[in-house]
Design a protein that fits this description.
The chain has 389 residues and is α/β, with parallel strands linked by helices. The chain folds into 2 domains: 2-27 and 79-191, 3-Layer(aba) Sandwich (Rossmann fold); 195-388, P-loop containing nucleotide triphosphate hydrolases (Rossmann fold), CATH 3.40.50. It has helices at 14-25, 32-42, 45-55, 62-74, 91-103, 118-132, 139-162, 175-191, 207-218, 225-235, 238-248, 255-267, 284-296, 311-322, 334-358, 370-388, and strands spanning 2-7, 28-31, 81-85, 110-115, 166-170, 195-201, 221-224, 274-278, 303-308, 361-365. The strands form 2 sheets. It has a 5-stranded parallel β-sheet with strand order 2-3-1-4-5, sandwiched between helices. Helix 1 packs across helix 8 (175-191).
Length: 389
Amino acid sequence: MLNIALFGPPGAGKGTQSEFLINKYKLFYISTGDILRKEIQEESKLGLEAKNIIEKGGLASDEIIVQIIEKTIKDNPEANGFLFDGFPRTKIQAYILSGLMIKLNTTLNRLISIEVPEEVSTKRLMERGKTSGRSDDNEDVIRNRLREYNKKTLPVLDFYKDKNVLSIVDGTQTIEQVTADLTNIIEEELNKNLLNIVMFGYPGSGRGTQAKALAKKYGLEYIAAGNMLEEEIKKGTEIGKEIKELYDNGQLVPDEIVVPLIENKIENSKQAKGFIFKGFPRTLVQSYILEGILKKHGLSITKMYELEVSPFELVKRLEYRRKQQYAKSYDSSTAKILYRLEQHENTTVKVIKRYRKTHDVVKINGMDTIENVFAKITEDIETGAKNLR
């Protein structure tokens, strides 16, 4: 998700640039004035509360504003992100927005300030006043508005400067040059977002095949808990021996063994364009662990896929695999195969249900050919990337 706050004094050309950014990056425009008027017009609970205050000559409180912003964000889950105009206006509102972003499991990627000297702003607005017919486009009112803007805005800019998310654009340039600068800033921001995928599906659904193909196509680091555990077994390490004993008894490997291997893999994959996880998280506890690991490294889950395959087909595929040279150690008997399917039903399905409440888990028909399944997944990934760009 791409979240941008656009700042600029009256006459900076913010309206023109906002329209461009909304269209190019498929962002939802949040103007506190607009959404407040919308709530009042619709006579919502918050709207009526704000109307009552405004009619008495007051201003809508930060408490009302932040609730309306939260409602707007939640009501538009299809948006690729949000463009904030007119918020945050004060340092207190900056703290409020930070808290709201945390609550919604996202962040403000960048605050961009289009800077224009007072004389230039005044000149532009005076010219506009000749044709706009607006009573507030006169020099005294304009200079007062600019003083108010500078007084309130500087603390907000300093707040985001300290967080290293402030970008400055020279608003005295041509519209095209300002647009180019904004585009460069946002493209750089988008490039920071790695593609992190979690691949779900029952054993035999084709998770590994698809995950490896996606890793190759997009330059991702393939993280398969099962593969890492198998490597430890092959190496004959003490951990490997412990893992083999657990496998032989049809038991799951504890998190105390799995997690350090996964974190080590992430820490040593500096050149990866992202990560694709197969076989992890298997449990609710592991889902929290994964989010903690990713957050520690400044990452988050980008995409989740669930491959759907019928129970009969799963057993058929796994029975075939256990007779092949590439069979896994946990494929050694029909009983173990059925046990693994049962384990997935009892543990991992709960994880998927949890993620459905917080993420968009995309279901893919895994009964199709390998090539067609891969095509469906890549189409979804690339459609999302195009929408962001």
